[in-house]
Structure formats: C-alpha cells, structure tokens
Design goal:
This protein is mainly α. The chain is built from eight helices and five strands, in the order E-E-E-H-H-E-H-E-H-H-H-H-H.
Length: 202
Amino acid sequence: MEMLERCPYCNSTDLIWDYERGYLVCTSCGSVISQLFADLFMPYPQSNAYTEPQGMYSIRESLREKDRRIYARKLSKISKEVYLYEKYSKKARKNVEVNIRALLEGTKEKIYRHRNDSMLTRLMEDDSELKRIIKEIVEKDPVFSSRTYRGKVAIAMMLKYLVRGEEPNLEEIVKKTSISRTHAKRLYNLVLTRLGNILARA
C-alpha cells in the first residue's frame, strides 16, 4: 500500500493516523482519506494493534482541534479590527467615519471619510459636467487638489457656476456638501484668488 503524504482533496500535508478506528484523516479539511490496516504500520499482536499511540488524535478530536484553531484565528482577526477601529475612531472628527477596509487591506482609499462622501459620489455620477470639472481642473490644480473630498466637490460646484457666468449659490453648496457656510466662503475666496493668479500669468 502506498504511503500518502498529501491530502488528495486540499493538498495539505497535515495527515494523522487514527489507529483506534483505522482511518487516515486530513486535519485541514477533515476528510477521511482511506481506511488503514494496523498491521501495515504497527507490527504488533492484534490485541495491541489498535491501541492509539500517545500524542495521536482521533478523528473526532482532530475535528474539534481544527474548530478551535479556526475560532482562535477568527477571534484574533476580530480583536485586531476592533483595536484598529477604536484607535483611529478616537481621532475622528464629528460625522467622520473610519474606513476599516483601508486599514486592514492597505488600499489607496482614505482612512477617514465623511458620512456624506457616498452621497457626493452619487452627485458627481449624476452630473457629468461636475465630474469633468473635478477631473480636468480641480484634481490637476496643486491648490485645489489638496483640499478634502467635500472641499473639492464644493470648489467644482463653484467653478460650474462661474463657467456659466453666474454667482455661486453658497446655500445650495453648503447643503449638498455638508460644509459650513464659513468654510464655503473661504473656499470661494480661494477660488477667486486662484483664478485671478492664473489669469494674471496667462
């Protein structure tokens, strides 16, 4: 009989002999790979052939041990997530959420995001002109692009009004971006100053 070194189902090498029941078991996936004959492995009298050697797990014990390890890994993962969330949430300002996925997976997304950011994203998706202003003007300008996401959207809305030759409706911008009126006024002054500098260099 050929000695198996890997599980044919999950390719794991974590195989154990259950001498009490005569099975070869994979502790990784719990599969019973084949039935064994004790005299192939233990050349002792039949009365002692099924005695389980010290340190060997039975199938039931192996599965319980596997469940314990899985639970321990899950608990460790959850504990890490809670620790990170609490650590960063303490530094978050009002109405700002922690992007736990960015923390755990190391994505390029921002760790902190305002609760209204998803609403602003939908706003841009529904307004092609606003989306184009963000992409072609705001993101390419070193001053505008350094602002927060809400600030960028507010600047884009102001530029949209100005392109049409209209005075920006700050009340509408404040309502849609959830920035304060004071912040909106500062951004508008920044836009006017920035446009003045650009025109002066042209």
